[in-house]
């Protein structure tokens, strides 16, 4: 995907977990998050149907896999919290 997004620097965000992230890591995460928000906004905008050949397009399976019907997304934040709590107990 090509995007005209310009990276900007900002102060480091505080972490609650005590993990230290490099400024480059935080900048990359911010860039991906901000760019994804732009993609979601563009997909949901009323003009998106007018420009099918340009901009982001949402992929939808033509023949969904029946094995995935019972798939439940994992909340990674919750999983990380539980793993962190489990390691503190040991």
UniProtKB/TrEMBL annotation:
**Family, per entry:** Belongs to the MCRIP family.
**Primary localization class, coarse:** cytoplasm
Q: Which organism is it from?
A: Salvelinus namaycush (Lake trout)
Q: Where is this region: Disordered?
A: 1-22, 43-90
Q: Which Pfam families match?
A: FAM195 (PF14799)
Which top-level group of life is the source organism from? Eukaryota
What does the UniProt keyword field contain? Cytoplasm, Nucleus
What name is this protein filed under? Mapk-regulated corepressor-interacting protein 1 isoform X2
GO CC, one annotated term = nucleus
Composition skew (Basic and acidic residues), residue ranges: 43-61, 77-90
Task: Spell out the coiled coil positions from the record.
Answer: none
Q: Where in the cell is it found?
A: Cytoplasm, Stress granule; Nucleus
Q: Known InterPro entries for this protein?
A: MCRIP
Phylogenetic classification of the source organism: Eukaryota, Metazoa, Chordata, Craniata, Vertebrata
Q: Where is the composition biased (Polar residues)?
A: 1-19
| Chaperone recorded as keyword | no
